Amino acid sequence: MATMIATTVHSGNLVLVVAVFLASAVEMVEALTIVAAVGATRGWRSALEGTAVALLVLGAMVVALGPAIVHYVPLATLRLVVGGLLLVFGLQWLRKAVLRAAGLKAKHDEDAIFAKQVEELSTPSATSGRDSTAFAVAFKGVFLEGLEVVVIVITLGTTSHDLGLAATAAAAAIVVVGVVGVIVARQLSSVPENAMKMGVGLMLVSFGTFWSGQGVGVHWPGSDLAIPVLVATYALVAWAIVGSLRPRAAASLGAVAAGTEGGGHHV
Amino acid sequence: MSEPVPSLAPRSLPVQMLVGFGRFWWEFLIGDTPELFVGVVTVLGVVALVCLGHPARTWAAVLMPVLVAGLLGGSVWKAKRKHVGASRGS
Fold first, then answer.
1. Rounded CA separation A61/A167 (Å)
2. Using the beta-carbon criterion (under 8 Å), do A219 and B61 form an inter-chain contact?
3. Crossing angle for the helix pair B56-89 and A193-216, nearest 10 degrees?
4. Looking at this predicted complex, what is its ipTM?
5. Closest CA to A249 of A106, A150, A124, A129
6. Does B36 contact chain A (CB < 8 Å)?
7. CB–CB of A90/A201 below 8 Å?
8. Containing H/E element for A141?
């Protein structure tokens, strides 16, 4: 079985699986924070119903849109458009992760988000039966976070001709994060989210470069093997940027703190 | 007594969905980093022009990651300048 999986999942597919899994896991952690806050304050029944309906709608979108895109859009156009989308999206993730790693942007604080959601939802309400607010907040949280996953699954899955594998990786991430979330309860802040975002950003930018490059006529030496090389190259670039920013960020913040009579600035 | 502020006419469901769809893609692609969207379009245009010459297609495999890395560096540099400016202003 392991040999069969190993031969099926070659290098390009492995990067695809890892990218989709990590992207889905990151978004699921954010969605789970909202669902946990809704469940803890308004009751679990409506929170879980909202979550289930959102997941069904997202799954239906993948099933409806994925095969249609593969069937009707020419491959060269698909590569150019999807690659361009992934490049923009991946650069956004990578930029945020680099800024967070360099200390120039506050890290995503799941505890703060949880506390804020609890505060907003802690108005008196009936906790038995169906709670429309709890349903709507859980649905919206899961649906909006999941939309990004749907875009990633459809774009990566259709372009690599393996929508099923991409969807399976996303579903596996949902299950893993769900199970871990139940076990660790409210300790979602301990998830190394920025490192995961950095990894996803690197892979999305690499896939985006590869496919959009193919779309405009770039000849990649080694074909699919260029993808891991691109991942390594961009990782080095990101590492160099973070390294060059860290001392400067600390120095500029130190100068600001010294010039404002102890008014320290924390990011 | 002041006149009540007239509320905007409620949008129909298809219009709401269309606006929501457009807003999602705007946030998704542009958001607070329009330079990345414009930069990617520019990079693809430049690389497409380079690829018009057949022997340059392999060189484009080196040029494209360099341009993308430069785009990332430029956007991060812009964010850093903004951050330092905001820190000095506060």
1. 11
2. yes
3. 140
4. 0.81
5. A106
6. yes
7. yes
8. helix A132-159
Q: How far is residue B30's CA from residue B74's CA, in Å, rounded to a whole number?
A: 16
Q: Do B72 and A241 touch (CB under 8 A)?
A: yes
Closest CA to A51 of A67, A39, A68: A39
Q: Do B72 and A249 touch (CB under 8 A)?
A: no
Q: What is the pLDDT of residues A93-135, one digit of tens each?
A: 899 999 988 888 776 666 666 667 666 666 655 455 667 778 8
CB contacts, 8 Å: B39 with chain A? 91
Q: What is the dihedral of CA A113, A117, A119, A125, to 10 degrees?
A: -170
Are A132 and A52 in contact, with CB atoms under 8 Å apart? no
What is the residue extent of each domain of chain B?
A: 33-89
- Cβ atoms of A92 and B33 closer than 8 Å: yes
How far the first Cα of chain A sits from its last, in Å, is: 48
Taking an 8 Å cut-off on Cβ atoms, the answer to whether B80 and A104 are in contact is: yes
pLDDT in tens, B23-70: 877 877 888 899 999 999 999 999 999 988 777 778 899 999 999 999
Between CA B83 and CA A106 the distance in angstroms is 11
In chain A, positions 56-85, which contact chain B (CB-CB < 8 Å)?
80, 84-85
Alpha carbons A99 and A88: distance in angstroms, whole number: 17
B83 touches chain A (CB under 8 A): yes
Contact of B61 with A213, CB cutoff 8 Å: yes
pTM of the model: 0.68
Residue A87 to residues A21, A166, A194, A210, A215, Cα–Cα distance (Å)? 18, 18, 19, 9, 13
User: Which chain A residue is nearest to residue B37, measuring alpha carbons?
Assistant: A88
Return the number of CB contacts < 8 Å for A and B: 114
